[in-house]
Amino acid sequence: MGRNSLIKVLTVFGTRPEAIKLAPVVREIESRPDLFSGTVCVTAQHRGMLDQVLEHFGIEPDFDLDLMSSHQSTTRVASTVLDRLPEILTSCKPDVLMVQGDTMTTFSAALAAYLNRVPVGHVEAGLRTGNFDHPFPEEMNRCLTTRLATMHFAPTTVARDFLLAENVDQSNIFVTGNTVIDALLGSVDPEFEFMDDRLASLGRDRPLVLVTTHRRESFGEPMQSICAAIADLASIKPKYDFVIPVHPNPDVASVVRAALGEISNVRLVEPLGYKEFTNLMARSRLILTDSGGIQEEAPALDIPVLVLRETTERPEGIAAGSSRLVGTDRTNIVNEAIRLLDDETAYGEMAAAPNPYGDGTASKQILDALLRSKAVLRGGR
C-alpha cells in the first residue's frame, strides 16, 4: 500500500494513565506499517510518571510539549495545548487524532483537533458518573470530548449506552473492551523480582493490602479520613503490610506522610514504574483505591477492590461484584476491608466475579474500526 493510502494517526497523551492505555494502541499501529502511519505527541502533563511508561513500552515521542511545571493549573495545561498543538496538526496532517479518557490533555487536544478540522477518536469513551463535581474536572472533560469526537471507542456496553442516551450516532460507537487490559496482560510476570529491597518480599512472606489515593475531590478532609482508616486497619491487622505509592502532588503527599509515615507495617514508597506496579497489584490480597484504571485492572487479576470514592464512572465492576464503593468515611472503609479480610466466602465471591472490561484485544479492535471508517475519516467533518 502506498504511503498516501496509509491512515495517519496522531496519538496525544500527557499523564501516566493515558500513556498506559494508549501505549497498546501505539504498538498496534507500529505492528501494521502497511496500513497505518503513527505519530506520537506527549504533553507531559505528568513528566516523571509519564516517562516511566514510555520507557517500559519503548515509545519515543515524535513531539514533546513538556508543559509540566510546579503547581501547574488545569487552565495552563489547557491553554498551552491549545496554543502549541495546532502547529503539530498542520505539520502532520493526520487523518485522525487519538486521545484517551478524561484529562485536560484529552479535552484540550480534542478541541484543538476540532478547530483544525481533524477527526477525533476517543478511546475509553462513554464513562459517566452524572456529577460534574465527582470526579472534577474529569467528568466535564470526558463529556466535552464526546461532543468533539468523531469516533467513540467505548470499553463496555454500559459506556455505549451512556453515549446513545446523549444522542451519539450509533454507527460511530465501537465497543472494544478497555486497552488497559491489553497493557496489563503483557506486563504481569509471576517470577518478577523487585529491585527495591523494601518491596522484594511483599506479598510472599506477609499478606499485602495496596492503597492508592490521589483524586482532586479527595483533597483535604476526605484524604485525612482515608489515611485515618488505613492507620486503623494497620493497627487491627499487624500481620499485614499496607503499601502506598505516594502521589507526588503536595496536597496528597503531605497528608499521607504526616498521617502514616511512622506506622511500622505501612510502607510509603515513591511512585512505581508500570511493570513494578502491575506486579505489586498481582501480589496483593486486597486493593483500596480511588483510581479509575485500577478498578479495571484488578478484576483481571482476581483481586477485590474497595473504591475510595462516592461515585464511579465504572459501574460495570460494581454490577459484576468485583468492586464495591465505600466512599471516604473512615468507619465504612475499615468495616468493609475487615469484612473481606476476615470472611473467606465474601472475599471469594468478589475475587471470582467476572471481569467486565475486555479480553486484551481492545487495541486491535480499535484499529480495525479505523480501517472500516477510513472513508469517514478522509471525508472530514
Task: Outline the structure in words.
By secondary structure, this protein is α/β, with parallel strands linked by helices. It has two domains: 3-177 and 361-379, Glycogen Phosphorylase B (Rossmann fold, 3-Layer(aba) Sandwich); 197-351, Glycogen Phosphorylase B (Rossmann fold). It has helices at 16-30, 47-57, 74-92, 104-115, 138-148, 157-165, 179-185, 197-200, 221-236, 250-260, 274-282, 292-300, 315-320, 330-342, 344-351, 362-372, 374-379, and strands at residues 7-13, 36-42, 63-64, 96-100, 120-123, 151-154, 173-175, 208-212, 241-245, 266-269, 286-289, 305-307, 323-325. A seven-stranded parallel sheet has the order 3-2-1-4-5-6-7, sandwiched between helices. The longest helix is centred in the first third of the chain and has 19 residues, at 74-92.
